[in-house]
Amino acid sequence: MTLSQRLLGLLDNPLIVKDGVSRMRSWRAPVILTVYLGLLGSFGYTVFVMQEVIATAQRLGSAQIGGTVFTSLAFIQLSLVSLFAPALAAGAISGERERQTFDVLMVSRLTAAQIVWGKLVASVAFMLLLILAALPLFAAVFLFGGIDFEQFVITQLLTVTTAVSIGAVSLFLSAVFRRTLPSTVVAYGVAFAGMIGTLVAGTLFSFTQQVHTAGASLAVNTGDVHPLLFTNPFNALLVVLTDSTGAPMHLGRLLQLLFFVSSQPTTAGPLIEPWQATVLVQLVLIVLSVVGAVQMVQSRRAPMSMRPPVPEPAEAVAEGEEVAT
Fold first, then answer.
1. How many C-beta neighbours within 10 Å does residue 290 have?
2. Model confidence pLDDT, tens digit, residues 55-68
3. Alpha-carbon distance 68 to 61, whole Å?
């Protein structure tokens, strides 16, 4: 079996078709798409007008204007993705229970892994559609300059992995809770903790570490940041768009900062940039969430009892003739 056939086999799932068609046939899909693009476009246009006014007074070039507008669009898109992803995935499995169709899935030929995979793809596919629909806005800003192609690709990669990771965690919570409301509330709480909580905690820990390293002297800045910031998508996006060096750090130094070790900074291990660490952590989170959701769905499935196979009609007729004779 070739690689293309395997990929098509992963998408050959009736839940993907069912949920995808039902979502796109409802009035909510075009409304969400319109609101998403409207918010993104209006925000980008507002920043562009403000930059034009500032450029007239400070004589800024088109590259500076394009870089500022692109950075603003990237951050607002990441924020919108973080807001929409829990709502789209938190009711994927709990909604089946509320509609009393979850038992139908359990007695079908689909395995627990296929059920979770189908629900995840159907939930994340709409988020990917939103990201894909916003590409013309980023492409238009890309023409002004100030952003290279590598930054553009990494920005979109961070957005996609963030959407998939939040969707996977929300799907796991949907498998844990029996109702959509508590799963959605907890999913938004987890998303807020991952996007904002790690940013605030990592900034505070970095400040504490720098003060401790400098001997309580704020005039010295070692440039070290806490590893929590290396797992935050907002920080990774900021470094990609504003720091040309990528702000890499050795793995050994990250471990030192994680445990607040105040010894001489080590250079052991490979250099890791914030966006690389963020994507790696998100991939691990996706795998753990999917495995956990599969286990939760599997635990709901009643064990199949060992029954003798049902004889074929021809065999049944033959057995009846033998009994008659």
1. 18
2. 766 666 777 888 88
3. 11
